[in-house]
Amino acid sequence: MNGRRLPLDWCGQVRSRSKQVENATYVLLDAAAFVSTSPLDLSESKSAPDFTVLSLYKIFGFPDLGALIVRKASGHVLQPRKYFGGGTVDMVVCLKEQWHVKKIESLHDQLEDGTLPIHNIIALDSALDVHSELFGTLDKISRHTAVLAQKLYDGLVSLRHCNDEPVCKIYTDAASSYNDASSQGPVLSFNVVNGQGAWISNTEVEKLAAIKNIQLRTGGLCNPGGIASSLGLVPWEMKQNFSAGQRCGNENDIMGGKPTGTIR
């Protein structure tokens, strides 16, 4: 919600500790947002996550593809799937008796359910070339976006009303810093207040920003836990807001004297 980056070495720590118990623990890393602006090094297999998901769409904008990277030693977890259908079997008998043989030669063959999006896969080659030509490496993108985030953060912090009260309430994690790209991504989450400290409607801020060709995301940000924690919303308040008409995407963004979402 606020761009905080959790330590990637947690993956290796979980694996090493799981060896001490009877039931193995596997780690799934959601790197979709991370790899859009930062390189991800999985070369050290012992500390790498068992499964990594990422969005090629979030990196390139097109094509609409995602990826699942599987640590070979953990691939067996995906093999007992009960689903069977087009693309996952080598032979099917359906007359007089029911029998089939699943693909076993490679893991990616076993996971190819149905027809692959061939046109999108072909387009990925062009996306890689254009991305490299425009932006160079992800390391360069990471440094650039980190500088932009730091500049924006410093600018928002310095905004003051005529009575010297702050304009923005910025939500950051105590363990992250905009001076450290390993702990903080290029994301800012904040709300706006007037000179008397009253909350300004996020919907109005978004509309005014759009007039100036500034694109913002406002609301719950698909992160109910982060929103509740940052805004100090306890369960009964969220239930009360729902009963009063709050719904995801509507304009009820200040209820009970508190904002129901943030600007990101």
TrEMBL record:
Query: Gene3D superfamilies in the record, alphabetically?
Result: Aspartate Aminotransferase, domain 1, Type I PLP-dependent aspartate aminotransferase-like (Major domain)
Query: Which superkingdom does the taxonomy of this entry point to?
Result: Eukaryota
Q: Where is the Aminotransferase class V domain?
A: 23-222
Q: Which PANTHER family match?
A: MOLYBDENUM COFACTOR SULFURASE (PTHR14237:SF80), MOLYBDOPTERIN COFACTOR SULFURASE MOSC (PTHR14237)
Question: What is the protein name stated in its UniProt record?
Answer: Aminotransferase class V domain-containing protein
Q: Which organism is it from?
A: Cryomyces antarcticus
Upper lineage is: Eukaryota, Fungi, Dikarya, Ascomycota, Pezizomycotina
